[in-house]
Structure formats: C-alpha cells, structure tokens
Amino acid sequence: MSFIVEFGWLAVVITILAFLCEYMDASLGMGYGTTLTPVLLFFVEDFAMIVPAVLLSELIAGIVSATFHIIFKNVKIGKEEKVKDPTEGLNSNIIETRTESSITSPSDITIENKQNGNGLTDSLSNLTRDTKVVLILAFFGVLGALASSVISVVYHSSEAFNFGAKIYIGLMVMAMGIVIVVLRNREQKFSYKKIISLGVIAGFNKGLSGGGYGPITVSGQILAGREGRSAIASTSISESIVCFVGVSAYIVTNLIMMNRGDLEITWDYLGWAPYLIVGAVLSAPLAALTTKKLKAKWLKIAVGWGTIALGLFSIIRYSLHFVGIW
Description:
This protein has 326 residues and is mainly α. It has helices spanning 9-28, 32-40, 51-71, 100-103, 106-116, 119-125, 129-155, 159-182, 192-209, 213-223, 228-260, 273-293, 296-322.
C-alpha cells in the first residue's frame, strides 16, 4: 500500500467514519480510537497499518478540538484571573502601625518568606484548576504511552495476557459508566488526590492496552467532582499530548529498527492518515460547540451511557476476536 491511498469509495468511507468517531470523541471525550480501530479492521487485517494512522489523526484532530474547546470556553487554560476586591481603597485612610521590634522580628521575616514562596510554586498555584488537571492527566498519560512500548514488547506473544488486559479495560470503563448513571444526581466533592489517582489509573491502562484513556479520564473526572463540560475539554487537550508521544514512539521505533537492519523503513502504515485527518478535523469545531450547548444534566447522562456502551462494545469485540470471529 502506498503512502497515499488511491482516492475512491474506500477513502470516502474512511473520511466519514473518522468524522463520526471524532464528533463523538470531541463532544463526549471518548470513543475515537476505541470505536474507529475495530471498525477499520473490517477493511484491512493488518493492525499495524491502522494504529499509527489513527494516532496521527487523533493528534491533529485533538489539537484542533482542544483549540475550539478553549475558544468556546469549555475549559479555562492559563493563569487564574484575580477578582479585584470592590472595597479595596475605600479605607485607605486607615493605616496600621507597627513597632520597630515587630518589623525586625525574625519570626515575622520567616512568615513573610513563607507567604512569598518561590517562583515555581507561585506559578503553579496561580494556574486555573483546568490547567492543573490537564497537566496531571497529560503527565501520567505520557508515562503510560511510553510504558506501552515496553509492555507490548514483553507480552506481545501472549494472547491470553493481551485478551485479559483488554477485557479488564472494558469492564472498568463499563463499571465507571454505571457509577456515573447511578450517581448522576449526587454532587461529588472535587479533590486533586482523586485526579492524581485517576491519572495513574488512566496512564496504567494506556500502557497496558493502548486504549481506554478517554472513557476513563472523562468519567473519572466527573466522579472526582468535575463538571462534565470541563472534564471533556481537559481530556481532549491532555490526550493530544499523549497521542503526540504515541506517534513519536512509532516513528522512532521504525527508525531504530531500520538502522539495525531488522526493518526496511516504510511509511505505508500512514497511508490512511490523510483521510482520517480530514474527517476528524472537520468534525472538531462542531463537536466542541455541541459540548458547549448541551446542558450539564444531559451531558452527564450522555457520558454515563456512552461509557457503558463503549465498555460493552470493547468486551464483545475483544471476546469475538479472541475466538477468531472478529
């Protein structure tokens, strides 16, 4: 297969599939790779021809999607805006006086230094909650993407391990969807500890199976007290970073294999990428707008049932694949 697949009915079908899957992914924060990859396997049996192209298209579409999520204010990235105190300056004529001893007290100097902190701490503390969540998810997601290359090499020949890992991901995704639906009317208290734990789990799952990042991070954020719109947008941004690492890993691995003489370098595995990119990018603005317009109540319900459906779909698909049917 050449780098550019000959344009025809198959190219049109691939573009449409990418459009639909990215619309679902960018509007609900999940489902692009999980749904698109097994569907594309109907057209080609070589798994290695699909995954790199899907990752590359997901990277570019993710960047576009993240940009529109920011434009539509589904997420606030950057420093926290300080709200000016309306009473500031009204009592400027009241001046607090201190004695000389209190000014030079070592304890006062220590307290003041602690309050001032250092540049890095101040910079991090001034970031918006959305920015902190994105950084946490991206950091652990990148670790998972890097770990996936090692795990795939160690256990690539074990069908039982690969099957068990993917069923585990499917069950976890479905379980989190069920929890969201059951607890949809209950307010969850936000906690950074929950977000860090979520990042670890999502990163581990990404490294274990190569998928399940979006469903886990979106549903997990909602269960950690995040609003659905912000959870979706944060996942879209952090997953773009993870996909960049994944695509880079594929390219670097191919170059290393070529230099060792174990592989003749070819870009055939990116042959479907142009059509996937076109379809995915076209849907990104519409998907971000849908996220903005959909009410929080219905957004949470959609995420819950969507997560359940993806988890169930993954379990059925991998079970059929294991017995040689799909």
